[in-house]
Specification:
Elements (H helix, E strand, L loop, with lengths): L7 E6 L3 H13 L5 E4 L40 H22 L10 E3 L2 E6 L1 H14 L9 E3 L2 H7 L13 E6 L3 E3 L1 H14 L3 E3 L2 E8 L5 E7 L4 E12 L5 H8 L8 E12 L2 H4 L5 E3 L13 E7 L2 E11 L12 H4 L3 H12 L2 H12 L2 H9 L11 E4 L3 E6 L7 E3 L2 E5 L5 E6 L7 H12 L4 H11 L11 H15 L4
Parallel strand pairs: 1-2, 1-11, 2-8, 4-13, 11-20
Antiparallel strand pairs: 3-7, 4-6, 5-6, 9-10, 10-11, 12-15, 12-16, 12-17, 13-14, 14-15, 17-18, 19-20
Length: about 500
């Protein structure tokens, strides 16, 4: 066990996919560095990385319509879709490298081929999806994307979508076989297990209560063991706060000026789940639809195949909820404790600027069970309520930050906040988070260790061959890398 008086090189707060990814990368780059992970719960990946706390979609914009907004002139903006796909390709490369070098187990333990589909109804939505398909189909990162308005074809892709639907209803779908379902819990556990074997120390049931910089530049991490509530202290040269929604509070306690003006808005979620083998056998895809008016991007409805620990289930959702907690295992006072004089104006401004979101959340909270199930029937017309049960998903905290124009904006996605000297950094935000852990952590490494990047570049390129380049700029390189990672991970090209 590390000594409190002896500083460790790297402290990772939170035992989720982000800490596991960063720890794995740093161990590859500097094998002799000492690493310690502090996890509040009794095991890794029990919060946002838990497979039942997220949709498990390998987010690559193959089916998520919110990444391709329609411009005022009616054309489709694909920049966001290309960016997210690029990011997921980086994660695939990193996982592929770890599989090839024996640092990750059999790929089917954490990633499985699952076609990704977009499905819409109504004339306007059909027109949108057709234009989206035309904008993406020739891009090298979206090779293999199919489109159809034929109910027979769509039924062959996803049988449950069609029976019971009015024949006169305009429908359309896109499909790509290269989609994936990812068990981020299993992936995280494997990464952390590998770190332990390499000498990293994992401290479970450790609730970090404070982070303060000493005069000598070292960070003093105060934490309590959940059993006995015993206080402990550990010194560290570099700290990463990957504590999910609780990252905001811990970064605020660190006192770094870079966190000033940031706030958080918690959103909880629920899914409907079925394990009925007869129903599960009829649907093998992740099918995403259009978000409701005023709904946040993370609330786009989808009917998903999930493969967890070798068992297959279906999930539909999410249904938004509200809790002031920043973690499922957090405190009812998390939201209130996060309010500071420097973020009060941005938080109020963001609230006033997102009244449609507030209205949407209230509507979700007061909706009857039958009303919520009607949303599932829009995807699965002959679905029966008795076959489905409710599960509570993970808690998400959306970023609120200062804005020169609106004084405060609600931002969807993730953001790295780091001190000027790069000795502490944390991750705020939510989706597509886990799917893009590898590129996010590579960006953090570049930001926090700028003086080491050139020396590390050969090793980084070995882990991620496209490091420093864009696959969308080089179709031949994209084809070669995507083919290689597909073979390593045993998923479709």
């Amino acid at each position: 066990m590390s000594s409190p008086e002896t500083p460790i090189d790297v402290a990772l707060i939170g035992g989720g996919i982000m800490s596991a990814t960063l720890g794995t990368m740093l161990k590859q780059l500097e094998p002799d560095w000492s690493i310690q992970i502090f996890e509040k719960l009794g095991d890794a990946a029990e919060e946002s990385s838990n497979p039942w706390n997220n949709a498990g979609t390998g987010h690559s914009a193959l089916c998520e319509l919110n990444y391709t907004p329609q411009r005022p002139d009616g054309t489709i903006d694909i920049a966001g879709a290309v960016k997210v796909n690029e990011q997921f390709q980086v994660s695939r490369q990193f996982w592929s490298h770890l599989v090839e070098t024996g640092q990750l187990p059999e790929p089917t333990s954490f990633i499985n081929p699952t076609p990704h589909m977009s499905f819409v109804w109504g004339d306007d939505n059909v027109a949108f999806l057709r234009k989206r398909f035309d904008a993406l189909k020739d891009h090298p990162l979206f090779e293999g994307l199919e489109y159809s308005e034929d109910a027979r074809v769509i039924r062959s892709w996803a049988p449950v979508l069609i029976p019971g639907r009015a024949k006169s209803q305009p429908i359309a779908a896109t499909r790509i076989a290269a989609g994936t379902d990812v068990n981020f819990g299993a992936l995280t556990s494997s990464l952390i297990g590998n770190l332990e074997e390499g000498g990293a120390e994992i401290t479970y049931n450790a609730r970090v209560t404070n982070i303060k910089r000493r005069k000598d530049g070292l960070w003093r991490i105060s934490y309590r063991r959940e059993v006995g509530d015993t206080p402990f202290v550990q010194l560290a040269r570099f700290v990463f706060v990957g504590a999910g929604g609780n990252a905001l509070n811990l970064l605020q306690k660190s006192g770094i000026p870079e966190i000033r003006g940031y706030g958080g808005f918690p959103v909880s979620g629920e899914f409907l789940r079925t394990d009925n083998p007869e129903i599960v056998a009829r649907h093998q895809a992740k099918v995403y639809g259009m978000a409701a008016v005023g709904a946040p991007p993370m609330s786009v409805p989808h009917l998903d195949t999930r493969v967890i620990d070798g068992n297959t289930s279906l999930m539909f959702g999410p249904y938004a909820g509200f809790s002031p907690k920043f973690l499922k295992s957090g405190s009812w006072f998390d939201l209130f404790k996060s309010v500071r004089p420097h973020n009060l104006v941005p938080m109020v401004a963001a609230g006033l600027g997102n009244l449609s979101l507030v209205k949407y959340l209230v509507g979700q909270l007061v909706a009857k069970k039958s009303t919520k199930f009607d949303e599932l029937r829009q995807f699965f017309p002959r679905g029966e309520q008795k076959d489905w049960y409710r599960i509570t998903a993970g808690q998400r905290v959306q970023v609120i930050k200062k804005d020169a124009v609106k004084r405060g904006v609600l931002q969807f996605g993730t953001e790295v906040v780091a001190s000027a000297d790069g000795t502490i950094a944390g991750l705020l935000g939510a989706s597509p988070g886990a799917s893009t852990a590898a590129p996010i952590m590579l960006g953090l490494i570049e930001k926090c260790f700028p003086n080491r990047i050139e020396a590390w570049r050969p090793r980084l390129t070995e882990m991620v061959p496209s490091f420093g380049t864009k696959l969308s700029d080089d179709p031949q390189l994209a084809d070669a890398i995507m083919t290689r990672t597909a073979e390593s991970l045993r998923i479709p090209r």
